[in-house]
Amino acid sequence: MRIKTIELSKTYEKKSRALENLSIDVNMNGIFSIIGRNGAGKTTFVRILSTELLPTSGSGYINDKDVIDQAEEVRQEIAVVPQEARPLPWLTPLQTVSSYLMWRGYSYREAKEKGKEALRELGLEDKEGEKSRKLSGGQKRKLMVATVISSEAPIVFLDEPTTGLDYLSRKELWQLLSRMKKDRLIILTTHYLEEAEILGDQIMILDHGKLVDMGNIEDLRAKVKLPYVLKVFSEDFKLEDNELQVHPVSERETFVYGSASKIYGLVPYLVTKKMKFTVEEASLSNIFEQYLGNGEEVEENEKEDS
Ligand SMILES: Nc1ncnc2c1ncn2[C@@H]1O[C@H](COP(=O)(O)OP(=O)(O)OP(=O)(O)O)[C@@H](O)[C@H]1O
Ligand SMILES: [Mg+2]
Known about the structure:
Layout: E1 2-11, E2 17-27, E3 30-35, H1 42-49, E4 57-62, E5 65-66, H2 71-77, E6 78-81, H3 93-103, H4 108-121, H5 137-150, E7 155-159, H6 167-180, E8 185-189, H7 193-199, E9 202-207, E10 210-215, H8 217-223, E11 228-233, E12 245-250, E13 253-258, H9 260-272, E14 276-281, H10 284-292, H11 299-305
Parallel strand pairs: 3-8, 3-9, 6-7, 7-8
Antiparallel strand pairs: 1-2, 1-4, 4-5, 9-10, 11-13, 11-14, 12-13
Adenosine-5'-triphosphate binds near residues 18, 36, 39 and 42.
């Protein structure tokens, strides 16, 4: 499966650009996670590629079909859960899923069978006959996801599908997405960086409508200056070093970001002092902070400085 954009830009109402010259080419099956602050352009990207919104300039392709000139064909290959989507309150979950499937061309019987299966996969089988207005916020989100996964669309857009889901439901959905991703491309926006890290085969960071970087977690980690985290659990730990970033988390917990050599260089001292510690690779949230926090720790800035 493939999504591609060339110099894609969107300006709403002549104001600041929501997307700016975005050129990417993702040719794979799996999960493509998009992360970025509020207003970074994630939803705009999803809406343009899912043919809901026209770009101001540039082009986008879904499996080599143009999202502007071949929008009808594109729509047959995609399924979308928009960020604000909610089910119609007067339909039951089963009616919601099955009517969507019939609209996509399934027979009544197939639609009902597939609908039941999708509801079961998302743990909504008890609710299949209730009116959707009686569902909780999280159950409504799950129902929207059930609707798109029941379709066999090869490219699926999920704009913040797990926002508002409880921790266990979120993990269930992760498992479901992992099972589904084998023969599809799932485009997933999320503010849960742990989720983007666990699920994302490719991760795109957007900021102010621009591509900050893209790659798998190792690619991204390789680009930051401080790819290791030392966590020290001791009240007596104090450290000052220009090449390290020291973040006191609480009175007895300090995180130190640094290069492998600098971090491992501290280990003998910690052992002598009998302080409890762990050394880990930077998580996506650490990496994200380094990219967007104050920008100082990313290599490109280093080059500019030197
Ligand atoms: N319909 C609209 N009219 C005018 N401006 C808009 C519209 N939709 C989005 N914008 C602006 O475009 C920019 C990008 O918005 P977008 O919704 O794509 O961000 P996002 O990354 O999805 O944010 P969030 O994480 O909050 O969902 C923002 O500055 C936003 O104010
Ligand atoms: Mg959004």
